[in-house]
Design brief:
Blueprint (H helix, E strand, L loop, with lengths): L14 E7 L6 H11 L5 E9 L1 H32 L1 H4 L7 H18 L4 H22 L4 H7 L4 H6 L6 E7 L4 E6 L5 H7 L9 E3 L2 E5 L18 E5 L5 E3 L8 H30 L1 H6 L6 E5 L15 H22 L12 E3 L23
Parallel strand pairs: 1-2, 1-7, 2-3, 7-9, 8-10
Antiparallel strand pairs: 3-4, 3-6, 5-6
Helix pairs in contact: 1-2, 1-11, 6-8
Length: 378
């Protein structure tokens, strides 16, 4: 007799996605939050990951954690990574300061958060912290091998390279003298390759690998999309740390630094999305010819923080700042899953936000922009 109280659970039908993780220094904590939430959804299967700069660290931790213990392993590995990146941990490596500096930093951060939460003064303090912390991290990274040593405590790169059935991993860096991106994969990724992907000239400096010099991958591939197009998933989810907005032609420029960061961090992404849009249009127009060219429809999706983050705060690795970004990432992922999960495997949902012009603008300058998504066949 069948016991109805012990019924076999219906297997969860999974949807495959490839992840493309942007860089952005401390803003990579937002990506951590997004990944943490995605890993909790049993309906989502991550089939590949590409990352640049902070996204490269997240990508390597994700792949390594999945290798070791599936989704739970990835969640733990990412948490360990960002605990290590928090400034009160980083400062422990500063000679003659170490533990005392770590404790005083935490005490000061807690006090300032209580006194000046979300105020102009608090914003200024965060900017000051980003400057001082960026300077300190620059000095620490000047100690040869320290970055790699700390990262290798979290990620076993030997195992990562040797495992044949792990998800494909791609890390982008910029070859300074060849003027092109270098994509490291599971076969040759190392802690030094990840450092090369994170090598902002004024913070880390050039990183030498096999007789070539590299800078941050964000200059040419932020993140690298091309390697994901040939993978198991036809859906690519881009996790953006820097907003890509299309504004009215007369929209004011509030911050030149923020706008410059928006351009440079999204230039390659815009190019890749437009290329995917053109290919999808060719497929819709002439499927047979497109197939002969090796083209297939790629659907793109995006998770953004939903507000403009200041470039000046990018190097603020205060634990409170990291925690805020992590929470924002979890919420953004939760919202995206609720609104767009059903579209995975069916259509693209990536949009570039349009900002409405101020009310006092002239009629000539008030042309409303519609959000745009890469074209794809119905």
């Amino acid at each position: 007799m069948v016991n109805n109280s012990v019924m076999a659970q219906k297997p969860v039908k999974k949807k495959k996605i490839a992840l493309a993780l942007q860089g952005g220094a401390a803003y990579g904590a937002f990506t951590w939050g997004v990944l943490d939430r995605l890993l909790e959804d049993e309906r989502i299967e991550i089939t590949a990951v590409s990352g640049t700069s902070a996204g490269a660290m997240n990508a390597a931790a994700l792949a390594s954690g999945l290798d070791e213990n599936g989704a739970e392993g990835a969640k733990n590995k990412l948490k360990e990574l960002w605990n290590t990146l928090a400034y009160d941990e980083v400062v422990k490596n500063v000679p003659y300061l170490g533990g005392a500096g770590s404790k005083s930093n935490r005490m000061l951060s807690r006090m300032l958060k209580q006194v000046m939460p979300e105020t102009a003064a608090g914003d200024l303090v965060k900017t000051f912290k980003a400057f001082t912390q960026g300077t300190t991290m620059s000095l620490i990274n000047g100690k040869d091998g320290l970055f790699e040593e700390q990262l290798e405590k979290i990620i076993d790169f030997d195992t990562l390279r040797s495992k044949k059935d792990g998800i494909p991993l791609f890390v982008a860096a910029t070859d300074i003298n060849a003027h092109k991106e270098r994509i490291f994969d599971r076969s040759d990724v190392t802690a030094k390759a990840v450092k090369a992907s994170c090598a902002l000239p004024l913070i880390v400096g050039a990183v030498e690998i096999d007789g070539r010099l590299y800078w941050d991958g964000g200059y040419l591939a932020n993140p690298a999309i091309a390697p994901l197009k040939d993978g198991d998933a036809a859906d690519i989810l881009v996790i953006q740390t820097i907003h890509m907005q299309e504004r009215d032609g007369m929209a004011p420029i509030k911050s030149g630094i923020d706008r410059l960061m928006e351009f440079t961090n999204n230039a390659s992404l815009r190019r890749d999305l437009e290329e995917i849009g053109r290919d999808n249009a060719r497929i819709a127009q002439n499927p047979k010819a497109a197939k002969a060219l090796g083209l297939r429809e790629i659907r793109t999706h995006g998770i953004q923080i939903g507000k403009e983050l200041k470039a000046e705060h990018m190097m603020c690795f205060d634990r409170d700042h990291i925690d805020e970004l992590y929470a924002a990432g979890r919420k953004a992922a939760d919202d995206w899953i609720r609104q767009n999960f059903r579209h995975i495997g069916r259509k693209s949902t990536f949009t570039r936000d349009a900002v409405q012009p101020p009310a006092q603008q002239t009629a000539r300058g008030r042309k409303t922009l519609k959000t745009r998504a890469p074209k794809s066949p119905k």
